[in-house]
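To assess whether ligand presence alters the predicted conformation, the chain was also submitted together with adenosine-5'-diphosphate. Input:
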Amino acid sequence: MSAATAAVEREADRLTELDAAIGDADHGTNMQRGFRAVCAVLEKEQPATPGAVLVLAGRQLISTVGGASGPLYGTLLRRAGKALGDDEAVGRAELRDALRAGADAVAQLGGAAPGDKTMLDALVPGVEALGESFAAAEAAASDGALATVPLQARKGRASYLGERSIGHQDPGATSSALLFATLAEVAEGTAEGTEGAAR
Ligand code: ADP
Ligand code: MG
């Protein structure tokens, strides 16, 4: 979560620029506000397990971010955290299953599916490739974000633009790819991350 916060700080301007093209120019600031609050609450409460970290982080995103992305990312993390339960150590396959449950919850909450030009276009392929390796998940999420460019938005604020949403990369898919890149970066050096990177 600290690495994610640092990545969001670094990329906030770019995320907001993408949102300026097909939304309301606040995705970077929304993510910044949310992840700063996540870092603050985690330092204060220091949850004992990975699952508890994700549940608390998700709850914090939901309560601090006004935009659509807050409840959606909050749901992703909260649901994934619940799926991890009380386990003290979490492996890549378990994380994949938990994030898959989280992505399903995002799809249900937002009524979107891959191809609608939303965060799900990066989340879903990223989660599936996590079955292979962290590096594969990073690449799949990044490809998924790039593949939103020619799509017409069918959900969220960008859908109000109709055909004018075509030709722009979705901000939420871009932040999802950023989060997978961060996960891969942090996982490198762990046993499973090294095994994944070697492929
Ligand atoms: P808002 O659209 O309320 O200003 P943000 O700008 O923070 O919120 O986030 C916009 C991003 O949220 C979009 O780029 C898209 O990826 C994602 N999003 C919006 N609506 C949905 C939805 N119904 N399902 C999944 N993702 C969505
Ligand atoms: Mg916005």
